[in-house]
Amino acid sequence: MLRIDMSFRSLMGIARYFFIALAATLLAGCATTEFSPAPATAATSDYNYHIGPGDTVNIVVWRNPELSMSVPVRPDGKIAAPLIEDLPAIGKDPTTLARDIEKALAKFIRDPVVTVIVTQFVGPYSEQIRVVGEATKPQVLSYKQKMTLLDVMIAVGGVTDFADGNGATILRSAEDNKQYSVRIKDLIKRGDVSANVEMKPGDILIIPRSWF
Questions:
Q1: Could you give the 3-state DSSP secondary structure of residue 26?
Q2: Alpha-carbon distance 204 to 61, whole Å?
Q3: 176: phi > 0 → left, psi -120 to 50 → alpha, else beta; which?
Q4: Percentage of residues in the chain with pLDDT exceeding 90?
Q5: Partner of 74 at 20 to 30 A CA spacing, among 27, 50, 64, 195?
Q6: Residue 74 included in any domain
Q7: Residue 97, number of CB atoms within 10 A of its CB
Q8: Is 50 contained in some domain?
Q9: How confident is the model at residue 48 (pLDDT cuts 50, 70, 90)?
Q10: End-to-end Cα spacing for the chain
Q11: Are the C-beta atoms of 158 and 170 separated by less than 8 Å?
């Protein structure tokens, strides 16, 4: 009986040690990696909008109303209009696209003068803001100049009850995918305006789940 009791105690000790080690491993796995805080402002004052698939552009050809119309930018990034076939538009600003249309029309009319006005904004994929994880409505947003973290949170309806708001990060493609920490909980639940940071084109906002 003594030998059995000692064996049982030994097994219990081993099991207890294994449980403690497992718990420590899990806690270490759940620990948040430290990232630098996101900069308060971003250098986007010189930002120019670039056309992307899904945009709608209004082409105005001076003194040629029959050639003026609104056309969508196709999923392949090209547009088609009277006398224009499969002209690439993706990644161009409206002025550059207008000059390209003028060159295409110059084969048919004399000295065309074209203005391009974007009327529906989506933007190229490389500049869209993506919100993933524990947002109320995870989605892709069109980037707007001077867009902030608070603007993004309003657009996605805030975070879920399970979100680790202060454990959120921004993955910044404009800086070789450098990752920054942000404090969403402090911003939207405590009203700490110092936690509001400016977004950059192509940012990915990652909101993890809280484990406690």
A1: helix
A2: 38
A3: left
A4: 78
A5: 64
A6: yes
A7: 24
A8: no
A9: very high
A10: 44
A11: no
Q: What is the predicted pLDDT for the residue at 22? A: 41
Tell me, yes or no, whether 182 and 112 share the same domain: no
77: left (phi over 0), alpha (psi -120 to 50) or beta: left
Give the closest residue to 81 by CA, choosing from 64, 100, 67: 67
Residue 12: count other Cβ atoms within 10 Å of its Cβ. Answer: 10
Q: How far is CA 103 from CA 60, 85, 114, in A?
A: 14, 13, 10
Q: Could you tell me the CATH number of the domain that includes residue 88?
A: 3.30.1950.10
Number of domains in the chain: 3
Domain extent for 63 = 56-120
pTM of the predicted model as reported, rounded to 2 decimal places: 0.78
How many Cβ atoms are within 10 Å of 81's Cβ, its own excluded?
18
- 148 and 113 together in one domain: no
Q: Is residue 68 a part of any domain in this protein? A: yes
The Cα 60–Cα 74 span in angstroms is 19
